[in-house]
Design a protein that fits this description.
homodimer; 68% helix; globular; DNA-binding; 221 residues
DNA sequence: CATAAACGGATAGTGCGACTATCCAAAGCT
DNA sequence: AGCTTTGGATAGTCGCACTATCCGTTTATG
């Protein structure tokens, strides 16, 4: 398969494929002549993965490269690969302004308490940690303490999900190779977030429709 | 308070504040002279909200404006305000390429079945719907059916969260005005996503550390 | 009260990320 | 043989989110 067909099959424009090749998001095709290459099913897959990460999960191209380099390396431990995936989706979530210091302090304390009570052991420089603290701090400073009160509930929910994801990924019926497990973990981490997010929105829309539009005369505000 | 102090208090550069004023993300200050304005606590709050939506939740400035316009309007029903919030975080999640048609069809059917079995009633053009279908389709086409198998579990989890969020927001101890409820719902929808996402990452990091690094000689891959 | 600093508002410019366009010489098809 | 397509290199575009500069007023300060 040459580049034109790869483009047709994948739905990605030829210039974009060339761009991805330049950026090493896509391995070069097998050269059949000094200037003629052929691509295979592997490239189609990889292209699908790249578009999904970029379009659906909103991961910057540079971070996609990081993640893929991790996947392609057969020496990088899975835990570090996960770290790259986490950084890929956390990079953009950094506050430039400053919530009041008091709110930040309270949030930091609360997060530490949460980690303690859950027994979650995370590196102090975990990418998600500062984002979590900043988010809580902002909520507090916007008088949304009742949302902050749901923190334990949220933690409960995600903890269960994490356990189930781990189980789903490691105990696949088909005996999976380490490579395949790594790929599953990374896809599950990043695209799983999109999945959860969209499901949440659908659940909200449905609930919202019931609560704030449907009942004609059910004492709403 | 004039613009320099607003900048100092909020941590947002003066030119950026001017930009937000131009884009109507921030209401104009009260004019004390033809060319002299004064800003208040309300502006500080709004600025915090804007930065949180932009930096933490990654919402594009244009969508932030949509959401804020909804909040500021006292005629737009809450359900429609929520719709704007949903569009704000879904706008960027649209696939440009094409997964195989078979996968998309299967995904569509599965999502319809899910909505049916849950009794979720959503508009057929709900912003999150196509993203969900595309995400599932991509997972399938990447041989991650085991992740797709978690769909019901995910749905369970988010359904519970939605119920609790609704309760937390509508039954605040302090008697909240409709405006305050609307603000809470929108913040809860958008920043809540950031909260859930970061908690999930922390839970994963902790689990991953246990499973793939800690035990020295516990039969890992 | 004079004068330098800060202000609000308008207009233009910058930097970055993600592509997209153009060229070219060397295949490839017909 | 001749038109098309290819891989690869280089340069250009586009949108977004800011920044920078100017300018004619205030405002603050010595």
């Amino acid at each position: 398969m040459r580049i034109a067909e790869l483009s047709r099959v994948s739905g990605v424009p030829v210039p974009t494929i060339k761009y991805y090749l330049r950026e090493n998001l896509l391995p070069p095709g097998e050269l059949t002549s000094p200037n003629q290459a052929s691509y295979g099913e592997l490239h189609v897959r990889r292209l699908r993965l790249v578009r999904a990460l970029v379009d659906l999960a909103g991961v910057p191209v540079a971070q996609v490269k990081e993640v893929l380099d991790g996947l392609d390396s057969d020496t990088l431990p899975l835990h570090d690969q996960i770290g790259r995936a986490h950084r890929a989706i956390t990079a953009r979530r950094q506050l430039a302004s400053n919530p009041p210091e008091a709110a930040t302090d309270a949030a930091t304390a609360q997060v530490e308490a949460l980690l303690e009570s859950r027994g979650w052991k995370v590196a102090p420089d975990a990418p998600a940690l500062t984002t979590l603290i900043e988010t809580i701090a902002v909520m507090r400073s916007l008088d949304q303490d009742h949302l902050v009160g749901l923190l334990e509930t949220y933690a409960d929910a995600v903890e269960k999900l994490t356990t189930l994801e781990l189980a789903a990924v490691t105990s696949r019926p088909d005996r999976a190779t380490p490579d395949q497990i790594a790929e599953s973990v990374i896809i599950g981490t990043i695209l799983g977030e999109t999945l959860i997010s969209t499901l949440r929105l659908l659940s909200q829309e449905s609930t919202s429709a019931h609560r704030w539009t449907e009942p004609p005369g059910t004492g709403q505000t």
